[in-house]
Amino acid sequence: MDFDDDDFRCTVTQYGMKESRQRLSDGKFHPEVTTKTVAQLENDTIRPAFKAAASRPKTVTAVIETSSSTPPEIVPVVGHLYLGPKIMEDVFRDGHKTAMRLSLTSSKMFKLVGDNINRWDFCAMAYVVEVPSSVMIVEVPQHTIGDILEAQKKYKLRLDSPEWKETRQRLESLQDFDGYKLRSIEMEQVFFQWARIWRAECLRVAGPYWATDDQEIDPLTTDRAKEWWKDDVNGINVMGSLEPLEKMWSANQFEGTKDKLHKMPISLAMESLFKLMAELHRARSHIEVLHLHKVPLLDRRMLAIILRGLPNVTMVGVYNCPLIHFGDVIPILDLIHDINNDRRKKNMPKIKAFDFFPHFNQGTPYAHENAATYGISWGPIEMDIAQRGFYAIILKAVLKSKGLGLDLLFSKDHAFMDYLAKVPNIPLGVYSFLDAVYRYIEVDRWAWDRGDIKLQAIYDMLKPVRVAVEKQKHVAHDWPKYYLKEMATTSGFFCCCSCGYQTFMEFFPAYSKNQLQPHKRACCACRLQIRLDAETDHLKAQKKGLLDKLCPDWEPKAFNQDAPLFRGGVGLIRLHSTETVRHMPDIVFAEGVDGDFGWTPYWQRLMRDAKLPHDSLVKLPRLEDVALDEATRRRWLDVIASAVREDVHRLGILELRKTFPTGSKRKGIPAYGPTREDGGAPDDLDEIQPPIPDERRYFFDYSTALKKARELLKEDW
């Protein structure tokens, strides 16, 4: 609360779980949250969605609300040579969903929308459409194996012939998508040839590495292999454990069914990212609206390089990019603040809108004992960290967004609100949380009952956290002890030693309340950020490691420039300290008041000297360097070569999984897949999720969220 005002001198009315639910049922949500009623959300959206998603198989198909028809008079206007691109600029400034709602009204409108903006095909490294428009859409089209193989049938060339290479290079120079198809087929052959070489030079005399006690590199492994693999023990052992590769291995994705989706190799994705950034630099003067859809290898650092290098961008949309997670919303908002500060000094337009859909983890796409949709993460995270952190990040983000005057991020019916509603959680949790935040920050300073209104808003804001992490018998009796003596008190406002923000104890781990050293408390927002950063599924660690090499001067633990919080929310969260260095206390041995000598008492200051997430966007390369600097270009080429090694390693693992399948013991050798957390299918549709490791409670998936919803319904909460 605002501890320097007189809010609590007025009468406080009784308020608890029952009263909170009654208030919600009797009224409506804040208009900025949703126009739907509680009953509509529960009956039309939440329950059916939870039930449908709780059953397998699962899909990631987005539900898009579309209007039934297009006004006939708008079609010729959108199709106008000069007016069309101008109209589309305004449409895409309002985010992806607005553009989709318009384009899906008719097949003719769909074509008109797509033909009036610049569309860059990430895979083909070329424009699908290039028009005089300030809108740039980067898309990653999905193709089946059969689609890619059509090019091989079309040109009827031998894979290793000079004619093949000449044709592929010619098509790439013409920006023909067939060039990407031929390159994809060619790269699978390259990976196989490397595997044949290293299988011979890394061969394990003792047998497959997982079937023996000795998992060290075989002494006969050649120095050339050790150098190429950079002494990667697992990579060398995987190659040395392969069966003889006389013909094409089964790991080649073009050897299987033609209906399977094509998987873009990491090395090709790295090359495509380089070409994208070079093109963005070339077109930097006229790009004002930028949408990035499902771009591989785009993490928050690459995004920072791009946005800092596009001086005229005023709207950015980031949608379901695999390396950008929910917690990244905080450093991205800080980035936008930093960019806008710099532009303000140069009298340049600022970034006014941010449309965001973080990567949504749908989970294993088929029935499996570990299969679960957590949304924010691939694997399970303890409830005490995830639930508190989820809402703490939302609180930070909404107040930073309002402090920046940023459009779209928390606008109803836009991408981020769709994401938050899709994450399995307490029914109406996100809606009631944001409703409470808005009620709090809009309280009239001169209202006689402002203290009562603020307390109720705080209670409703903390409710989704508490009903998930605390026992029901405790929250059922919140009035009067918790409500009046614990909630929103000075002693219940903790400072985080990682980010320096001060907020409610409910956003800190449960044990923080009794922690003897207050200066060592770390909030769950920071803890959740670092947990999401540390996930290793889909080769995230290896991909980020490659990106690390592109940022040699990056300072991972440096602090970004903090985006300002909305002033009206100072009673909910505030930046307490930006100090990062803790000096040794000046303790003196002196005589006390009782005449005895002893050490003078010392109280440790609260500051942010123990940063957890490596979310810094400081000292990154410039977009201009990526496009023009020769040293930076050589660094990218080296990283692309390293990415080839990751591709060969990944395919080697897939080959071992198929050679030594689960359920069989070939030549007395146990199955390979169960020896790995990913089931022997890294970055593959068959990659499995980690199991829940112990009896502790973990973040919701759809089935546990549905179970919790029934419990709350029974209590009428």
From TrEMBL:
<feature type="region of interest" description="Disordered">
    <location>
        <begin position="664"/>
        <end position="691"/>
    </location>
</feature>
<protein>
    <submittedName>
        <fullName>Uncharacterized protein</fullName>
    </submittedName>
</protein>
